[in-house]
Every structure is written in C-alpha cells, then in structure tokens.
Amino acid sequence: MDIRFEEAAALKEKPQGPLGFGKIYTDYMYVAEYDKNKGGWWDQAIVPFGPIEMSPASMVLHYAQETFEGLKAYRTKDGTIQLFRPEMNARRFINSNERMSMPAVPEDMFVNAVRALVEKEAAWVPSGEGESLYIRPYMFATEEGVGVHPSAKYKFIIIASPSGAYYASGVNPVKIWVEDEYIRAAPGGTGFTKCGGNYAGSLKAQEKAEQAGYEQVLWLDGVNRKYVEEVGSMNVMFLIDGKVVTAPTDGTVLPGVTRNSIIHLLKDWGYEVEERHMSIDELMEAARDGKLQEAWGTGTAAVISPIGELCYKGEKHVINDFKTGDLTQKLYDTLTGIQWGELEDPYNWTQVVVEAE
Ligand SMILES: *Cc1c(COP(=O)(O)O)cnc(C)c1O
C-alpha cells in the first residue's frame, strides 16, 4: 500500500530561538486507517498537520484503547539525518497493541511510515546542540459505540516536533521521591506497554512528589511496594559497589530502547549488570553504607537523567554529592555521541534516512 500525499496550502515559519520539548509541530503528519471489515489497514497518507475529525462516541474516548511510541531523528554535523533503532520501537508497538487487543502495525509499515515522514520533514530536523526531531507514533480506537469490546476501527498517526536539548544547562541531577502509596503497574497488567492509561494513572503520584519538592517518582512494585521498578517514565539503574543493578523487564517494567542500549555498552565495557528485583530496603542500606555510587534514569527524551537525591518514607540520601557521576556521564556522552553521529556506531544502531548533501 503506497503512502498518499496531500500538499499543505501553506508551510509554517521555522521557529527561531529555543525549541522546548514537544511544543512545536511540523507541517505534515502521517495517518493510517484500519478497519477490520475492510481487511485491515486500508489507507496511508501524509497530510497537513491539523485537527482530526472523529465521532464523540469513538471508543478510545470511553475505554482508552490507546498506545504510543517515542523516538527521535538526529541531524549529524555533515547534515545526515538518522534514526536510532526504530525497529525496536516498531516491535514494542506490536507488543503494546497486542496487550490492548489492538491490531498490529507490521514492523516494516511502522519503520517505513516514520522514514517517510522524516524524509518529508527533513528541513524540520534541527541542527543545534542537543536538538532533534521528536517523533510520536500513536494509535487509538475510532469505532463508534459505548459497548465494551475491542474496536474494529483504528487510526495510526505519527506527528513530529522539533525539540531542544532536554537539559538547557547541561546534564543535571534530579531529586527523586520513592512512592510508597500509589503504584504504576502490577503483574498481569499493562506495565510493559506504552499505553496512555499507564500515564493517566501515574500523574497523581507525580503531583504528590512535586508538592514535596521532588522532581520525579521512583515506582515500587505493585504487589508489595517493595521492589524498585522505574523512575517517572524512565527505566532506572544503580551503580552499587562497582556493579550495575536494574529491574528485569518481566511484565511490569517498560522495556526501554535506551535501557537495552546502555546494558549493551556496560557489558562491552566489562561491567557486571544485574537485571534483578532489588528491594528498596537493599537500596537504602547501600546508600547508608556508602555503596550506592551513582544512579540514573534512562529514556529517549532525556537519554540519561542522573539521580542526585532519594527520599523514602522521610529518609533522605544524597548520591555522589548531587553531581553527575563519571559512569553516568560516560554513558550519556557515548550514547548521544552515537545518536548524533559524532562517534563510531559499532552496533549498527543508527539508520540513515537522508544522506548528507
Ligand atoms: C518510554 C518509557 C521508558 C523509556 O523507553 P525508551 O525506549 O528508552 O524511550 C521507560 N519507562 C516508561 C514507563 C516509558 O513509558
């Protein structure tokens, strides 16, 4: 199925000055239509970015069949535009959709759609330090009806947003609130998917953390509120006594592309990486004993977010004097170096969309 193209009547002015994150959108968006009664995906188009017309009875508005992804296009110094492991996002989208009883977007359809939009919007991929084109694919149920069952119709849309460096003033540690009341995920639930509902349910704890003067929440497991799972909407890793510990991706934790890439780097550098359930008590004890050397969150938006302070039930610990640790910095420099084409890519993680001129 070819991707149709509808020309915009006029193009927008490119922004001048700081871009922020996810505030500005490009001229076009990609829209694909699914209908079970038409045999599946039946239309794909790149159309002017603009409002979506849909019924107020669209099922997503009532029962939240909605999934999404997040990735970036990077412009290298010589003008090449490239993606970072987009096939990983495609596969994760398939897994998210499967869990939400939504149809699959085949891996090649997903990657080709992302590539087509980025190619069309190449002029929107910014070239400033740390800037990128943030790409947001998402899918939702559009069948009309308020009966509860999987929708027969869906839209799969991709929008793109030129975004600034996540850290305006360099990588800075954040203060983390360990949440012991609200949970993000439970076994058998949707924790491993990127679905909007997971986020709606997490906002309350985020508000609570902010009111207490913290920037992000550290999530504990949903059964015992004991094992460390994620931080905000990032995976989380700890350097304890020379070893790196992170939660396993066995259902409640989102399998991050950044997490996977960083584990690869760490193992290549000779670090022992333990993917295991670690209790918050073990973590606090390591902090008390001076064995917790560094801690950081990982995700596409920030790449790496160092953790400078933890607060659990009133007990507070500052990590690495509230400074970005050496390993945290080296991971950040290496991964961003590969993404922006400043370092060799021995893993073939990057995929060129537009060649340098
Ligand atoms: C998206 C996300 C991550 C990070 O995944 P990346 O692929 O590295 O961007 C981690 N945790 C949650 C809950 C997420 O939604």
Automatic annotation (TrEMBL):
Pathway: Amino-acid biosynthesis; L-leucine biosynthesis; L-leucine from 3-methyl-2-oxobutanoate: step 4/4; Amino-acid biosynthesis; L-valine biosynthesis; L-valine from pyruvate: step 4/4; Amino-acid biosynthesis; L-isoleucine biosynthesis; L-isoleucine from 2-oxobutanoate: step 4/4. The modification N6-(pyridoxal phosphate)lysine is found at K194. GO terms for biological process: isoleucine biosynthetic process; L-leucine biosynthetic process; L-valine biosynthetic process. It catalyses: L-leucine + 2-oxoglutarate = 4-methyl-2-oxopentanoate + L-glutamate; L-isoleucine + 2-oxoglutarate = (S)-3-methyl-2-oxopentanoate + L-glutamate; L-valine + 2-oxoglutarate = 3-methyl-2-oxobutanoate + L-glutamate. GO terms for molecular function: L-isoleucine-2-oxoglutarate transaminase activity; L-leucine-2-oxoglutarate transaminase activity; L-valine-2-oxoglutarate transaminase activity. The keyword Transferase applies. Keywords: Amino-acid biosynthesis, Aminotransferase, Branched-chain amino acid biosynthesis, Pyridoxal phosphate, Transferase. It is an enzyme of class 2 (transferase). SUPFAM superfamilies: D-aminoacid aminotransferase-like PLP-dependent enzymes (SSF56752). Its EC number is 2.6.1.42. The keyword Amino-acid biosynthesis applies. Pfam families: Aminotran_4. InterPro entries: Aminotrans_IV, Aminotransferase-like, B_amino_transII, BCAT-like_C, BCAT-like_N, BCAT_family. Gene3D superfamilies: 3.30.470.10, D-amino Acid Aminotransferase, subunit A, domain 2. Its cofactor is pyridoxal 5'-phosphate. Belongs to the class-IV pyridoxal-phosphate-dependent aminotransferase family. This is branched-chain-amino-acid transaminase. It comes from Faecalibaculum rodentium.
